[in-house]
Amino acid sequence: MMGKSKKRNWPLSLLLVALPVVAALLCMGFGRYSLGIVRTLEVLFSPLTGETVSNMEWNVVFNLRPPRILLAACCGAALSASGIAFQSLFNNPLATPDTLGTTTGSSCGAVIALMLGLNMVAVQILAMVFGLLAVALTWSLSKVHGKNSIIMIILSGMVISALFEAIVSLLKYVADPNEVLPTITYWLMGSLASANFGSLLMGFPFIAAGLLIVYLLRWRLNILALSEDEARSMGIDLKKMRILVILAATMMTASCVSMCGKIGWVGLLIPHISRMLQGGDNRLAVPACISLGATFTLIIDTVARSAAAAEIPISILTAIIGAPVFISLLRKTGGLRSE
Amino acid sequence: MIFSVENGCFSYPKRKILDHISFTVEPGRVLAVLGSNGVGKTTLLRCTMGLLPWKSGRTLIDGVPMEQMPHRDVWRRISYVPQARGPLFSYSALDMVLLGRSAHLGTVEQPKAKDIKIAKAAMEEVGVTHLMDKNCSKMSGGELQMVLIARALTAQPELLILDEPESNLDFKNQLIVLDTISRLAKERNISAIVNTHYPAHALKISDQALLLNRDEADFYGPTAQVICEENMRRSFGVNVSVHSFCVDEKQYKTVVPLSIAP
């Protein structure tokens, strides 16, 4: 253990970068049209090597699968990063975009935009505004005598989630059952099927900015997790720091929600696994979290699109995998202590 | 650094807590703050540090009002040691102590080799080097309190503010904490403001004492004068006997509670 927190661990950093890349290459070959890793690489480098490839192979490797794989990786990284940021910020291992109501709030905003027939940018912006609104409501609701207790945050998150869920249901109820309703319903289940380079380009800047903020502030996240007085006595501008982290995390969540609907569990599962592997220090846990989140979601999405004849909604899979893993995790670590 | 509070007042909506508090702490001196439960000791510390705004009055650092100083500058000169309460996430002791460098680093800066060296020196100073890699959430109260003192020292402050640092600790750990505060004051010239429930501890380590009272004027002055049988009865409603005795030619003082005052 000595030296773990002192020296930069190059092999580990390299592994964290390599993991999603290798997973992406592997997943690229998977699907209805199977390629295998060697053939995928051959096709990928064919412009350089002059290898002859069929039209189909070219299309799969350069047009069909990359947007979806990039989207899965981006969303996985974004949801995990916002999970770990929220957990430090609220000093609460159960705080995630899902439990705080951010996801539901964002999806409510996105549904409104979809119903009004607005374009992708408006969907993102409305999703973000409603996501922020949800966090703000959860935060203020949970404040009793100027203190946010863990249990109150979770409870008010549930209440706010339920509220926005009800609004979404109401909107679905009044939505046009032939045109709008199927879109909304399928989208709410979470799907990356509609991925294309255009929509990716729209959401990517928000995700990249959010990831960058969380990554750069990763050491400061350790301070945010202390009690309020302690954090302020570390000489940081607590209010500014909190707002920045909330903005970054909500921006990422809203962007994911507007691109591929609700993907649950990632924001809870991956930060916990990262901390189990790396310890509580966010300097190490945040990079691990981003890398593992991207890899995990990538693999899950590959299963979602290739396991059955019809595509399985990804949030069903994350829940089926997430719930048992999380329960065993909780039992092993004895609940709230996350190590 | 001369740290002083001038006519500090604070009240909650229904209740007046602190009424015209004034004190001055000079370099290398220790001030003990005493008072019964709920009288406002922690509130006093929070106001003193600017974590809670005074209703009126002010805190001065070398004669400059604290609110006129940049936040970061203040926290490079004073450091706060809260009551030991483990973090929810599992930081190692070294990670925890390193956080003390925060006021010296830019917003997106990470601690560097120099900061790690300072953190390790602080851990050595209070004798917790052996805990370096231990998880803070698995520490005993005594270990964690010493780690928090090391964290405060890592900011290289001129004044430590400690909130009941020896409460909830066993006999030996209490002595370790108290000796550390005394030693830092004498050898390193780091002054301290300490909240305590134990009059005997105030007598042991402090030069001055501030005894907060609920309904009347507070007592402030040299510790030996403030902690007397008469004042103890008025502040705590307890009849005490203050004893002086000698062991190996060293003078010790103790406060023995006798009975509840009628």
Summarize the structure.
The complex is a heterodimer of chains A (339) and B (262). Chain A is mainly α.
Which secondary structure elements does this structure contain, and how are they paired or packed?
The complex is a heterodimer of chains A (339) and B (262).
Chain A: H1 10-29, H2 37-44, H3 46-49, H4 55-89, H5 102-115, H6 120-142, E1 143-144, E2 147-148, H7 150-174, H8 180-188, H9 197-216, H10 218-224, H11 228-233, H12 238-260, H13 266-278, H14 282-306, H15 314-333
Antiparallel strand pairs in A: 1-2
Helix pairs in contact in A: 1-2, 1-4, 1-14, 4-9, 4-12, 4-13, 4-14, 5-6, 5-7, 5-12, 6-7, 6-12, 9-12, 10-14, 13-14, 13-15
Chain B: E1 3-12, E2 15-25, E3 30-34, H1 41-48, E4 56-61, E5 64-65, H2 71-77, E6 78-81, H3 93-98, H4 113-125, H5 141-154, E7 159-162, H6 171-188, E8 191-195, H7 199-205, E9 208-211, E10 219-222, H8 223-226, H9 229-236, E11 238-247, E12 250-260
Parallel strand pairs in B: 3-8, 3-9, 6-7, 7-8
Antiparallel strand pairs in B: 1-2, 1-4, 4-5, 9-10, 11-12
Helix pairs in contact in B: 4-5
Keyword list:
heterodimer, A: 339 residues, mainly alpha, ABC transporter involved in vitamin B12 uptake, BtuC, two-stranded antiparallel sheet, 2 strands, 74% helix, disordered N terminus, disordered C terminus, B: 262 residues, alpha/beta, Rossmann fold, four-stranded antiparallel β-sheet, 12 strands, globular
